[in-house]
Amino acid sequence: MQLSKRISTLTGDGSDGWDVFNRARKMIASGEPVIELTIGEHDVRTDPTILAAMDASARGGHTGYATVAGVNALRERVASRLTERTGVATRPGNVMITPGGQSALYSAHHAVCDEGDVALFIDPYYATYPGTIRGVGAVPRAIPTDASDAFQPGRDALEAAAPGARSLLINSPNNPTGVVYDRATLERIAQTCIAHDIWLISDEVYDTQVWEGTHLSPRALPGMLERTLVVGSMSKSHAMTGSRCGWIVGPEAVIEHLITLATHTTYGVPGFVQDAAIYALDQGPALEDKVSAPFRRRRDLAQKVLGAQNAVTAVPSQGAMYLMLDIRATGLSGEEFANALLDAHKIAVMPGESFGQAAAGHLRVAMTVEDEVFLEALERLCAFAASYT
Predict the structure, then answer these.
(1) Side-chain-side CA neighbours of residue 188 (13 Å)
(2) Does residue 6 have a pLDDT over 70?
């Protein structure tokens, strides 16, 4: 029996990008001590008060089917949050609650792409982006960027890719690069979308992790309100990765169709999880700052380590919980370096090639272990790179 082409070709012709991560996990399972700097998983887990709110809701009986679109109180709270943070008036009807940001990305592409449509994304990219696009039957097309431009997409690259495309997926603050798109970049993106009648899907799950500059949602730019779908999540802002609670924000007519899609797929998010999300959002910026503080602190510590050596060059780290390190001076690819580092020092990082060809010769380092362990691992990584230069 054969599987469908759609499911069997989600990762295209090559690896899904997780080879080093999977090898590290096998080493850990066999008892080897490995420092994992691979995935964006908080080392300080969900705040106990959020868990208490979730427990109280579940024990109070909110364990049955929840409204597919999301409970009204959470849709209202997300709408209020977007209005406050972006300056764009947002109503509950503009919001659908989803089982995490990944589900929101998948649903958003379903909303705007038909079978065979071209869907654009920026290279480097989060590893699931091309597979998400293939999963809805669309054709992924990468827009290349360059480290010399801090991986911000230029006008020429956008214009070259845009003709015939139906959608464009962006992510700022960016995973994997840690770059925050500046206003000029976002205006270029907006102008391209308007000129070529392209839907913009803006992945903003790291909007509370900005170390330099300002997060600007492209939905707030002129002409973009009715052609932008924003993806958000409780995962990164509130360390609720396993709770699977996110959202899509967009025009009400689009949200109505997405509710129909959810009725036939996920059938919503558990009510007790949504109640916990309401509680978490009601704590305001203080809790968000508490969750993001370790990454801001480790980013500052990393800058001191990286500034004291010359074997590794860092892409400007402006946001998110990652560093993007240029190790091309070693003569190794990102995959070769990551595998060699894992063998020699039991330190696991993600090769840049896991996130596209634009990041070849780079490493993504997640700042997701306690400070002392993180500093030790980063110093050993730099010393290992120096041994090749």
Answers:
(1) 16
(2) yes
